[in-house]
Design a protein that fits this description.
With 225 residues, the protein is α/β, with parallel strands linked by helices. The protein has one domain: P-loop containing nucleotide triphosphate hydrolases (Rossmann fold, 3-Layer(aba) Sandwich), CATH 3.40.50.300. 35% of the residues lie in helices and 18% in strands. The protein is built from six helices and seven strands. It has helices at residues 11-25, 59-67, 109-125, 144-156, 172-187, 207-215, and strands at 29-35, 48-53, 85-90, 94-98, 129-137, 160-165, 197-198. A seven-stranded mixed sheet has the order 1-3-4-2-5-6-7, with helices on both faces. Helix 3 (109-125) packs parallel to helix 4.
């Protein structure tokens, strides 16, 4: 009988994964395309990781922290107004996709429905999309809009990984409770990746671990001559 129980990585394997993540995200990262409509999407060439989250969840800060750049991704001054998918090429091995924020209270219902329609079509039909990093704010309760996005990702059959942001702010006991709650929610969704990470763009917590996770989805580095 084959044993499908996940194996705990050794310290050496963990260190190799972290070094792979460091090397990948130390590479050149540049903006390559912005698409406001599905017909404008660039050709699917590299593996893609999309970052999604409610407005003000810290998505742009996290992308900048991962890549070691301060202004690579910029937050919109008017949440809910930007509907553009921004594509960034990383080291010629991976594409990062910065998705528009959702859950914006001031946006009209038609705008929200349009966002969901466009995002669902992108998520369901993008052959190179390997994972969605779904960001949740560790300071606040999980919103109905977050739960709706998880259901949308289930329907689209796209693997998503929950990452808690701003974890330097809550007290340790509050953060621990939030992590337990989030793990339980992830376990209830078919498309959810089982590992939930906690991060802080302010003090760097969890950045190394997230880089290591995402590096596993990139094309391998070019062979040395």
């Amino acid at each position: 009988m084959v044993d499908f129980t996940p194996k705990t990585p050794t310290p050496e394997e963990i260190e190799r994964a972290r070094e792979a993540g460091r090397l990948l995200f130390a590479g050149e990262c540049q903006f390559v395309f912005g698409a406001q409509k599905l017909g404008q999407l660039p050709d699917p060439l590299l593996p893609e990781i999309a970052f999604a989250g409610r407005s003000n969840v810290g998505k742009s800060s996290l992308v900048n922290a991962l890549t070691g750049r301060r202004t690579l991704a910029r937050a919109s001054s008017e949440p809910g107004r930007t509907k553009q998918l921004n594509f960034f090429e990383l080291a010629g091995r991976l594409t990062l996709v910065d998705m528009p924020g959702y859950g914006f209270a001031k946006a009209a219902k038609a705008v929200k429905e349009d966002w969901q329609g466009m995002m669902f079509s992108f998520l369901r039909g993008r052959p190179t999309l390997k994972r969605v990093v779904l960001l949740l704010d560790s300071r606040v309760e999980i919103k109905e809009s977050d739960r709706e996005i998880m259901k949308l990702l289930d329907r689209a059959a796209v693997t998503f990984q929950i990452v808690l942001t701003k974890c330097d702010i809550p007290k340790p006991s509050v953060l621990a409770a939030k992590l337990r709650e989030t793990r339980e929610i992830a376990a209830s969704h078919a498309a959810a990746y089982p590992l939930v990470l906690v991060t802080s763009s302010a003090n760097g917590e969890g950045i190394v671990e997230l880089r290591a996770e995402l590096a596993q989805l990139a094309y391998p580095p070019p062979a040395r001559a």
